[in-house]
Amino acid sequence: MNYGIQMYSLRDAVAADYHQALQTVAAQGYKMAELFGGMQPSAQIIRQWADEAGLTISGTHTGADALTEEKLEKTIEDHHTLGCNLLIIPGHDLSTKEKLDGFIALMNWVQPILAEDGITLAYHNHSHEFVPNQDGQIIYDEIVSRTSMKLELDTYWAYNAGKDPLQMMDELKDRLVAIHLKDGCMGGKGMPLGKGTAPVKQVWQKAKDMGLVMVVESETQQPDGPTETGECIAYLHSLEG
């Protein structure tokens, strides 16, 4: 099994030495890296470091502000440099109808432009997209029904919102390009894989059956990011065992 890792799981290690952080997750057995927080020091250097580690860049978490007309050309260029064809919006302020309408208009404008350049546009959820915003809209339902953008289902945040991630995987099917495989307890307390109450094993099996890309995320950095990501992949190997 090939697993990806959302590099936010090692954000302190990334800040201290990005090159070494990529080497660390590769040594742990991850085959793909999902990036966050922009292209510093540069897309070219990150690609070089990933290549040296034997990692592919499976996707980026890129804010919607990078998709404006002024910034879009550079964003596309950076993704080509990375060898990455998946751009995931990691979340956005969609707290009102006006903000949500503007976001959906931007997504519907930019998605075909990105597609022409071989880049798939997707959205990553947290828990708040499943409860009414200030104007009573369920953000996730609006995105699913009013756009054709793909989805990266964060299975823990869906679970935390009271949703059944297994049922959602069945319902979304071809809209899914990847899942975040994550554990934790109700109330928003994340934990390494196998240590929370989320249905990680069942989600893992369904993702395997569906042929979905599995990207691990474990955000607590206790005692540190590399230790936690090591625990997560050891748990996944135990499932394979």
Largest sheet: 8 strands, parallel, barrel
Number of helices: 10
Helix % is 40-55%
Tell me which CATH architecture applies here: Alpha-Beta Barrel
Instruction: Please give the CATH class.
Output: Alpha Beta
What proportion strand?
15-25%
**Which residue ranges are poorly predicted, with pLDDT under 50 across at least 5 consecutive positions?**
none
Spatially, the strands of the biggest sheet line up as 1-2-3-4-5-6-7-10
How many angstroms separate the termini? 11 Å
CATH fold-level topology? TIM Barrel
Principal-axis shape: globular
Fourth CATH level, the homologous superfamily: Divalent-metal-dependent TIM barrel enzymes
Describe the protein.
- The chain has a single domain (4-240), classed as Divalent-metal-dependent TIM barrel enzymes (TIM Barrel, Alpha-Beta Barrel), CATH 3.20.20.150.
- The chain is 45% helix and 18% strand.
- The protein has helices at residues 11-16, 18-28, 43-53, 72-82, 97-116, 139-146, 155-160, 165-172, 200-210, 225-240, and strands spanning 4-6, 32-36, 56-61, 86-89, 120-124, 150-154, 176-181, 183-185, 189-191, 213-216.
- Strand 3, helix 4 and strand 4 (86-89) form a beta-alpha-beta unit.
- The protein is globular and about 45 Å long.
- The relative contact order is 0.15.
- The mean pLDDT is 97.
